[in-house]
Design a protein that fits this description.
Helix content: 40-55%
Radius of gyration: 36 Å
Number of domains: 2
Strand content: 15-25%
Length: 327
């Protein structure tokens, strides 16, 4: 009787061992599967975060290229409008904002902005984002236009950026200013385009020489005059002010000498008695005049305000002033 019980106990013990091993195996398998699942999930989160971080980094770099293109095309569009319509803007910055963002001038489509407005750019950004499982929402809260030097303009876009993963794994939200600097070289001067009925457009160019007058050598000055090149002048309006025919002096003012012969050749009325500095000439502004400068061909009609003798480096040359300048 005792022997039978012993055998039964041995069988029970063997069964218990087998069951325990099976349970242990299942636990190990479960824990392993759970661990692998956790690792896979962590890897997924990591990849999505890296992808979003790369997207934000790429956007922060690419937005400067897009804003430069939109800014440059906006200026070209504004130039075209002024030249074709023969009218200035009441507020250059407000008009710039509309054209830059929406691609419109006075609510009409600007042809040069087709596909190049900042709104068009943001739409393309959204399409790219959706393809990689990201929802992008960039809200432009402000656009400013200004000048901080003579030969370029500054465009600053203030934007609220919200980037969210479509699975709500991660998100970015921040406000940032994006600054772009656009040179004005080779852009057309709105004053010339408007006042010459677009017959004598003049592009912003600077004569790259170390001096205009060297002793009595006036070759560079004559080149400057005949080519209607621009020089820096704090007595003159800036490039942006010219879109409004705002003649106020600017710390970033530029000016040129009107080539009267070229204007006359295009059958545009000539004011022989006017000062030939562009913004003064086109608006009939008067001042004490300086003319008949030594070694300057009289046919250039070089007549400037007396107080700009140093600007044009003619202080040490002989010249006439006052009423004798009615040439």
């Amino acid at each position: 009787m005792k022997l039978k019980i012993k055998k039964m106990n041995n069988k029970g013990f063997t069964y218990l061992i087998a069951v325990s091993f099976l349970i242990a195996t299942l636990i190990v398998v479960y824990l392993s599967a759970t661990d692998y699942g956790f690792q896979d999930q962590q890897e997924l989160y990591k990849n999505r975060i890296v992808a979003m971080d790369n997207f934000v980094s790429d956007f922060n770099q690419d937005v400067h290229r897009a804003s430069y293109i939109a800014s440059f095309r906006t200026l070209l569009s504004l130039e075209d409008y002024v030249a074709v319509n023969g009218e200035f803007f009441n507020n250059t910055e407000d008009q710039f904002k509309e054209t830059f963002y929406y691609g419109q001038i006075n609510r009409s489509e600007a042809e040069l902005m087709n596909g190049s407005s900042f709104e068009d750019y943001l739409s393309r950004v959204n399409v790219v984002a959706e393809k990689i499982g990201i929802h992008s929402n960039v809200t432009v809260t402000d656009i400013t236009l200004s000048q901080s030097d003579f030969w370029s303009i500054d465009v600053v876009i203030t934007a609220l950026v919200n980037i969210t993963d479509n699975h709500n794994i991660a998100s970015w939200s921040f406000e940032k200013n994006y600054s772009t600097n656009v040179p004005i070289y080779d852009l057309r001067d709105p004053l010339y385009s408007t006042f010459t009925f677009n017959r004598v457009p003049n592009t912003i160019r600077k004569l790259d020489v170390p001096y205009l007058v060297n002793g009595t050598d006036t070759f560079n000055l004559e080149t400057h005059i005949n080519g209607s090149y621009y020089l820096e002048s704090t007595d003159a309006p800036s490039f942006l002010q010219r879109f409004e025919n705002n003649l106020s002096p600017s710390p970033y003012g530029i000016e040129s000498i009107v080539n009267v012969g070229l204007i006359s050749a295009q059958e545009v009325g000539v004011c022989e008695d006017c000062i030939k500095v562009d913004y003064m000439y086109f608006n009939g502004l008067t001042d004490t005049k300086l003319c008949d400068v030594q070694n300057i061909n009289p046919n250039t009609y070089f007549v400037i305000p007396l107080n700009q003798n140093e600007t044009y480096e003619v202080s040490n040359l002989t010249f006439s002033t006052g009423g004798s300048c009615n040439t």
